[in-house]
Amino acid sequence: MAGAHHSGAGFNPHFPGFKYRFLSTTLGATMWFFIFYRARKDGGKLLGKHPWEGHGASHGHGDHLPHDEHH
Q1: If phi over 0 gives left and psi between -120 and 50 gives alpha, with beta otherwise, what is residue 10?
Q2: Cα separation of 64 and 59, whole Å?
């Protein structure tokens, strides 16, 4: 059987050194800071809000009212 053979103490991985943990933490934090920075700058575009729809008025099809009645 594949699971019945037990030789040795099992799988004992070595823990990474301090510089690898520091580097991975630094790179991970940099990645998340960049993601949140870009989400703050243009996250609306990612979610479907376009810059030309900034004032919130609906100008879709069928909205043919005079300009004074829109605002």
Answers
A1: left
A2: 8
pTM for the structure as a whole:
0.49
Q: Which two tokens stand for residue 40?
A: 């703050």
C-alpha–C-alpha distance, residues 24 and 30, integer Å: 10
| Tens of pLDDT, residues 17-45 | 999 999 999 999 999 999 999 888 887 77
How big is the chain, counted in residues? 71
Write the single-letter amino acid at 36.
Answer: F
Q: Which of 48, 70, 44, 47 is nearest to 59 (CA)?
A: 70
Q: Residue ranges of the alpha helices (H) in the chain?
A: 18-46, 67-70
Please say whether the beta carbons of 46 and 39 come within 8 A.
Answer: yes
CB 53 within 8 A of CB 39: no
